[in-house]
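Our preliminary data section would be incomplete without showing what the modeling component actually yields. Below, a chain of 363 amino acids is followed by its predicted structure, encoded as tokens that our downstream tools consume directly.
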Amino acid sequence: MDFDLSEDQRALQDAASRFLAEQCPTTRVRAAMASEAPYDRDLWLAMVDLGWPAVAVPEERGGLGLGTVELAVLLEQTGAHVTPTPFLQEALVLDALVAAAARGVEDAGWLDPVLRGDTVAAVAWQPVEARRDGARWLLSGRTGPALYAPTADVLVAPGREADGTEHLFVVRIAPGSIAREPAMDQTRPLGWVELEATAALHLGGPEAAESFRDLGALGHAAELLGAAARVLDLTVAYAKERVQFGRPIGSFQAVKHRCADMLVDVEGMRSAVYHAAWCVGAGDRDRSIAASTAKTWCSDAGRRVMASGLQVHGGIGFTWEHDLHLYLKRAQLDEVTFGDATYHRARLARLLRDRVERGESVI
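Predicted structure:
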């Protein structure tokens, strides 16, 4: 059995890496951070023209008709280049809208504008209060931190009824109505959405909410993988170049061990991410377990890789001029978005306990 990427997936990986290396150097990322614009629109439209947000959308819906593994391939590259675009959020919204349409839910005209890149979408993963009002659904409460909310036209978020049942919804929000909150990661705008009995379109019940959580956890884990792999490369290159006591610091045993530990962490992240991508894409019964496992490992391992990268770089790694801080700050936000390691360990415990109580194997 071959667990590696297929030839076509490797070709996609190479093409994405070349495209972002050319179109999204860190100088462009820094320019986007300094700009008042919420994201790099030209870069975003170039990604839309390539069909990236719709990579896993069926062809009959206007997408490329590939799959979740291909989406993970692209997300690893956007993480490696800290792209200042709403790629992950748009992909999550498209997946939710397409899945709802497959269940017979009208998309209220949002699918095509999101596919074209005309509509910016945001997602919130922490449930707000949901209640029925006749045939309508109303959402109330404050979402958790939502990436791209300050510039979004629509928001996809889970809502929880009084009895604890979760559903998935999409609501319209007025662009510019959400204040941009200060955040360490300045490559992406961040905001909280206040909902006050806001009418929402119901996209699905508990299964839809769970699938949304799975894909969101996987997506952020894939971005963490890309960022960690890039920091490993930066650190190894620096260890070869930096000379101390007349020799490259990479020749010292302590630095070698640091870099070796980083490699182990990154390869573990890669295995967890692509296993989860396959499970989610195939609708495997272990998809939620695999997604939470990937997010748990990548959140913890990503933090270790960033810490070791800083340690090897020494003082230069803390400076604004060095690119390491871009990855560190990006990873810190990805680590907690769609649940940190503690959240997903608790989720794994619930999922596995349910299996044990049913008398099923957890292996």
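Residues 206-241 form the longest helix (36 residues). The first strand starts at residue 121 and ends at 123. Preliminary results of this kind motivate Aim 1 of the renewal.
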